[in-house]
Amino acid sequence: MSSKSKQIFLIGLFMTVIGTILTIFNWYSALYSGRFYFKAAFIGPFAIILGIGATLFPHQMIPITTNNLDLKPTKFTQVVLVLAIISGFVNVALLISGVVPFLK
Questions:
Q1: Chain Cα centroid distance, residue 31
Q2: What are phi and psi of 72, to 5 degrees?
Q3: Among 51, 56, 26, 29, which residue's Cα sits nearest to residue 40?
Q4: Cα–Cα distance between 93 and 42 in angstroms, integer?
Q5: 10 Å Cβ neighbour count for 68?
Q6: N- to C-terminal Cα distance for the chain?
Q7: What is the pTM of this model?
């Protein structure tokens, strides 16, 4: 594992832990006080998915460099980002809509 891969692995692990803490805290707050934090509801699941992707596949998250030094994300990174954004929106939608019975 290269130095860059190790850094991405550790950042991914940190993001997964922080995202999990944010998500658990937000759902706990929604359950017991009836309110939640909108930004944390999006950022928590987003960080979890992005962190899992970086932890499991750190070498896939390294951007591709071209001759003019532009950084282009890999296809894997783009897929993980889309999944992370969708998971954030789904979490917010569940908290707002009250689909989960105990939030009504």
A1: 22
A2: -115, 130
A3: 26
A4: 10
A5: 5
A6: 48
A7: 0.83
CA separation, residue 2 to residues 8, 43, 59, 75, 100 (Å): 10, 29, 9, 21, 44
Distance of CA 43 to the CA centre of its chain: 7
Going through the chain in order, the beta strands assigned E by DSSP cover: 64-65, 71-72
Q: Which residue has the tokens 């658990």?
A: 24
Q: Tell me: the pLDDT tens digits for 32-91?
A: 888 889 999 999 999 999 999 999 988 887 776 656 666 777 888 889 999 999 999 999
Name 64's bridge partners. 72
Structure tokens at 72: 């282009």
9 is written with which tokens? 């692995």
